[in-house]
Amino acid sequence: MKKQVKSSNVFGEKQKRIIAKTLINLRELNFLTQTDIAKQLHLFSSTISHYEKGLTVPPTEVVYRLADFYNVTTDYILGKSASRTNLNDTYAIKLTNKMTIGDAVEIMAKMDNAEREHLAYFIEVIGKSKK
């Protein structure tokens, strides 16, 4: 059953535009129409249109469903994070048997600028050699 879901008015115009743009980008990256999204989330197409025009902000329930559908975080949809995925999950990825990305980030945070520059250069060189 489709339903019209009400949203609160806690977001300013700038935040509404950010959310609208993010929703459009996610939909287009996945080659979907507003109708496709509406069917998946059991909403009206006009509701999706209003979200994408920034006329209304999706309520919490819908933000969670959108995040789950697109496999992104709610913070990404709300414009609070540039990362689409949960950084805790990313930090847990193993670089080696003994080191995670989180471990590497902690080590890099303790480096001075010169050490970070050397590391960045090294990463760039390795990245170019893999192309």
UniProtKB/TrEMBL annotation:
InterPro entries in the cross-refs: Cro/C1-type_HTH, Lambda_DNA-bd_dom_sf
Keyword DNA-binding appears in the UniProt entry: yes
Keyword hit for DNA-binding: yes
Lineage top rank: taxon: Bacteria
Keywords: DNA-binding
Domain HTH cro/C1-type: 23-77
Gene3D superfamilies in the record: lambda repressor-like DNA-binding domains (1.10.260.40)
Pfam families: HTH_31 (PF13560)
Protein's recorded name: HTH-type transcriptional regulator
Native organism: Ruminococcus bicirculans (ex Wegman et al. 2014)
